[in-house]
């Protein structure tokens, strides 16, 4: 830049001062832009004011089914564990997994040689004792004749009689030992106690089983897999609505697109506490005619505790909806549900009284009428209306939809109704 007083002289400018001047210009421009944006927003709000609309859903009439959900495992109605009462080595195994068996059928055998030897030893002991008994009988008879002829004393005669009685007792002991040995020999043969199918085979040929302290399980036989049952754990909060004879729908992971059916057979009173959560075993009878269901499968159970047909029902979103105060009609009065029940029963049903908001007039105008209703069963999506001034076709607010004159809109996800519905 040239100096005004000296045309040929160039004035040197400090670079730091020039930088500060440039930054100041940018700040001024930013302030001007902010003011312009604020003015445009105020002008838009004045000429295009936002209006509050509502998402809505009608009151409809239809069927409702309330269910209690639980999980459980499928089991045979009768599953017999077959064990053994003697120890030894498995000599022969006559069945395998899924083998059909009949009551009294031989299914396995333990090596009988040691038990056969015990039978022979017990039989020999019995024969030896029987010979001793014969000798004592002869001596007792001779002692009796001598005592009659006064040839021996009474003490000697009594000793001979006592020895005879001891020999007779020894015969009974040896006979019992022989019977025990024969029974143990018979126990080496494992028989099926019922008709059914083998679902567990726990031993192989050559395996040693020990029955010293407890009876080992060799096989598990299911009586009839066409009849099964589910042991489901129902939470204590839901058990009050579960009764014997109620219908049950359930699915298993093996057949995700098929629904099976059953009936509640028993609700057991024994509490089951797991991690401070109390549940009760509910036994469900199941028919498995096609043998698709297998023992041990996990069942996702839905117990039908109530079914109502042709009732007024509203979406649960309407029960959760809470509008801003300025959206409620100025002349609105809460219409309460009629209740002709006694005071005690009315006090118990207070928790079923809910407030919903009916759209009156144009849905785009924020004019809501609060209405109090008494609710019944729910399927998780819709809830039954037991009492109240609602009628079929009434529009209920389920969410807030804010729009402007330009046609753009947005829904508040915090007012019970979520985002605008797709139409």
**How would a textbook summarize the main sheet?**
6 strands, antiparallel, barrel
Sheet-strand content, in percent, reads 35-45%
**Would you list the SSEs in sequence order as H and E?**
HEEEEEEHHEEEEEEEEEHHEEEEE
Q: What sort of overall outline do the alpha carbons produce when their principal axes are compared?
A: elongated
Euclidean distance between termini CA atoms: 69 Å
The CATH homologous superfamily of one domain is termed: Efflux pump adaptor protein, beta barrel domain
Structural class category = alpha+beta
Radius of gyration: 46 Å
CATH topology of one domain: Elongation Factor Tu (Ef-tu), domain 3
Number of helices: 5
Q: Supply the CATH architecture of one domain.
A: Beta Barrel
- Give the mean pLDDT: 82
Description:
- With about 425 residues, this protein is α+β, with helices and mostly antiparallel strands.
- The protein has five helices and 20 strands.
- The protein has helices at about 15-45, 115-150, 155-185, 315-320, 345-350; strands spanning about 50-60, 60-75, 80-85, 90-95, 100, 105-110, 190, 195-200, 210, 215-220, 225-235, 245-250, 255-275, 275-285, 300-315, 355-360, 370-380, 380-385, 395-405, 410.
- Helix 2 (about 115-150) runs antiparallel to helix 3.
Mind sketching the topology for me?
Elements: H1 15-47, E1 51-58, E2 60-76, E3 79-83, E4 88-93, E5 100-101, E6 106-110, H2 113-148, H3 154-187, E7 189-191, E8 196-201, E9 208-209, E10 217-222, E11 227-235, E12 247-252, E13 255-274, E14 277-287, E15 298-315, H4 316-320, H5 343-348, E16 353-359, E17 368-378, E18 382-387, E19 395-403, E20 409-412
Antiparallel strand pairs: 1-19, 2-11, 2-15, 3-10, 4-6, 4-9, 5-8, 6-7, 8-10, 11-14, 12-13, 12-15, 13-14, 15-18, 16-17, 17-18, 19-20
Helix pairs in contact: 2-3
